[in-house]
UniProtKB/TrEMBL annotation:
Annotated Pfam families: DUF5648 (PF18885)
UniProt cross-references to SUPFAM superfamilies, sorted A to Z: Metalloproteases ('zincins'), catalytic domain
Residue intervals of the DUF5648 domain: 6-85, 91-152
Organism classification: Bacteria, Bacillati, Actinomycetota, Actinomycetes, Kitasatosporales
Protein name (record): DUF5648 domain-containing protein
Length: 453
């Protein structure tokens, strides 16, 4: 039996840092470890944070001499102060136990004596006493200290990764050679094709009542048809083989009645980048902007969010598309009546270079509409699922970054899930993480929106 290599426990008070680690670095969310102070308070001491790039371990200590020794002789880099804690018990402060796994070099911290004893008894950790004292409930002046964990690999995981990398490399070489040819050809003749596609979509989908129903039914046929065509990729994905695929994203920022944008542009870029990172790192899907001559290669770095992904409308929108619903009846009404027709017209106009693909289904862009609000005041994002080409999201800094990739997941065949670590668990249901199961990855990659070319 192969030996299991443990991963790394990581603790931070920063939500952006937490979200970045979940999206980009393979960590899982393990909840709130405790409550601490973000800045010095009376009676508090700093908890120093260090990181070892050789074994990937985060290490925390209140001892400046121990910190200095770890930097000088143990390969750690000083990352400053993680937070402020207590040096002794009292005022309801409890021990924050410290443990160490010598095989992996992982430091682990917990307020639970039961969990600490179990880790020492069953997981080869050695108890190293009490790191400091912290609080298990929130109070004025305290913030959550989030706990994350990056799973390790064993020998067979490494074998599977090597096989997957080999297959991914072969397919990636093929798409690198032929992808630019197709992209160039599409760019040269795309103007006429997309104009024709826009006319066709507009003439049918904008017919009152009947048109949206016909277009929704057609999208259903396309969704099923391209899912069948993707079966070889699905089967490969179930055993961990995920050659890079691509999808295109078009974000439309609407103007309110006064002519002001309903989205925060800086936040919109952050949300797009977060979606790019999540889809790339969790499903090996590269999110590209909609437009002519957008070249990509599986061997290049993930794209950076830019103005190319965003279309800002030039004329104000009406309340029917600014303030939308998210219940089943709201979504049906939105698709089948005036709002759906207006959204369709906006997609045809603002995301012109995706019209032809939207008609045939293969590589149809997912359009994100920045809306002002949701009627129930509870949602910040909504999707009608794979039978629709658009999602609606509030793109302001009050919205969690995982909202956009969550809604894009719905557009790509995924439904709600019940696991705090999973991308498809709604935020109001406790979802924080961005993980996807093997089945979810296979379904997402089988979407008509996700293709090799």
């Amino acid at each position: 039996m192969s030996e299991k290599i443990m991963g790394d426990h990581f603790y931070t008070i920063s939500e952006p840092e937490r979200d970045s680690a979940l999206a980009r670095s393979g960590y899982r969310f393990e909840g709130i470890a405790c409550y601490v102070a973000a800045s010095p308070t009376q009676g508090s001491i700093p908890l120093f944070r260090l990181f070892n790039h050789d074994n990937g371990d985060h290490f925390y200590t209140t001892s400046a001499p121990e910190r200095n020794r770890a930097v000088a002789s143990a390969g750690y880099q000083n990352e400053g102060v993680a937070c402020y804690v207590r040096g002794s018990s009292g005022n309801q402060a409890v021990p924050f136990y410290r443990l160490y796994n010598g095989d992996s070099g992982d430091h682990f911290y917990t307020t639970s004596k039961t969990e600490a004893d179990s880790a020492a008894a069953n997981d080869d950790y050695q108890a190293e006493g009490v790191a400091c004292y912290v609080f298990t409930s929130n109070a004025a002046g305290l913030v959550p200290l989030y706990r994350l964990y990056k799973p390790g690999h064993d020998f067979w995981d490494d074998i599977a990764d090597a096989l997957s990398d080999a297959v991914d490399g072969v397919v990636g070489a093929f798409t690198t050679v032929f992808g630019p040819v197709i992209t160039t050809a599409e760019g040269l003749i795309g103007g006429a094709l997309n104009a024709l596609g826009g006319i066709l979509r507009g003439s049918i989908c904008e017919i009152p009542y009947l048109g949206p129903s016909v277009c929704t039914a057609w999208d259903g046929v396309l969704t099923a048809g391209w899912a069948v065509m993707s079966l070889p990729d699905v089967l490969g994905g179930l055993i961990g083989v995920h050659p890079e695929k691509r999808m295109t994203l078009c974000v439309i920022i609407q103007l309110d009645e006064e002519g002001s944008t309903v989205a925060d542009y800086k936040y919109a870029l952050e949300a797009i980048q977060y979606a790019i990172d999540v889809f790339k790192n969790k499903a090996n899907v590269r999110i590209l902007s909609v437009g002519p001559f957008v070249y990509s290669s599986p061997f290049s770095d993930p794209p950076a969010a830019s103005r190319d992904y965003i279309s800002i409308e030039s004329t104000p929108s009406g309340p029917e598309t600014l303030d939308v619903g998210c219940g089943a009846s709201d979504l049906l009404s939105q698709i089948e009546t005036t709002p759906g027709q207006v959204f369709t017209a906006k997609m045809i106009r603002e995301c012109f270079w995706g019209n032809a693909r939207s008609v045939v289904g293969y590589g149809a862009p997912v359009v994100t509409f920045a809306v002002r609000d949701f009627k129930d005041g509870r949602h910040t994002g909504c999707s009608a699922g794979p039978l629709n080409d658009y999602v609606t999201v509030v793109l302001r800094n009050t919205t969690k970054l995982r909202t956009l990739p969550h809604e894009l997941g719905h557009a790509c065949n995924l439904w709600h899930y019940d696991d705090i670590d999973n991308l498809m668990t709604p935020g109001e249901g406790g979802g924080v993480g961005v993980d996807l199961s093997n089945v979810q990855v296979a379904l997402l990659r089988a979407s008509r929106h996700v293709t090799y070319f």
